[in-house]
Write a structure and sequence with these properties.
Layout: H1 2-5, H2 14-30, H3 33-38, H4 57-71, E1 79-83, E2 95-98, E3 107-110, E4 117-121, H5 129-148, H6 159-178, H7 203-217, H8 233-248, H9 253-262
Parallel strand pairs: 1-4
Antiparallel strand pairs: 2-3
Length: about 260
Amino acid sequence: MFSQLFKNTPIVDDGTKAWIYDSFLWCLQNFDVDYFKQKSQIILPSNDFYPGKCSSPQEMAQTIFTNTLSYAGMSNWPIELVDISNYRNESMTQLALSKPIRGESSKIQYLIPSNTIKIPYQIDQIRQPQDFIAYLVQHLASIMLAQLKLTVPGGNDLQPQAIDLIACFLGFGVIFSNTAYQFKGGCGSCNIKALNRQNALPEVETVYALALFCASKGIAVSKIKPHLKSHLFKTLKSAHKEITYNLKDKNTQEYQLFFQVTNPA
């Protein structure tokens, strides 16, 4: 009885944990493992990554978009941010992709002469910058899935959750953790519900995916603490400790799978 009483509660259940690991490995296999190892970084909601001021709301939106595209390694992709008033819903342009698909050396070409891929936005979205960034990254992840014609781990029913996990893989886990749940109480002046991003991966699972990114890249969670919602840090720290142990222990399945993907023969 007492052994059960003092037993640690799992951060996420075994099935969810297995899906997060499988999905992260799937990302490594499909979204340029070399770029991940050499270039991927943790993107923080700070002036070091995003500007604090611009001359106009439109310039702010475009700057956030340009920076986000760069941090995702997709600056060479023909993607454009457009005001929703100028947006027409049309079939996505098909691209011809060859490895590497991310970074400055990526080669992205039109399959047939066509227009850029457009992401619509409303100018009010910049009032909640982290939600806006997450919104953009969700679109970028969806575009990659569509262009590579990939089915996510667990099938199409889990695609919304997989898109949020891809965002964490791309380095945006702090921002996605911060925006996974928005408190609905209060006067509403601090948060506008209509501008919140649509999340599919729950808050704790998103933090676990963030921890997996940090452990994979050797990033100390202390670097993240000032930028993460305070109530999430304890979960992040525990998840990071657990994952770091698993990735270092050669007897674990997690170590063996990650080693195979990140150190191909």
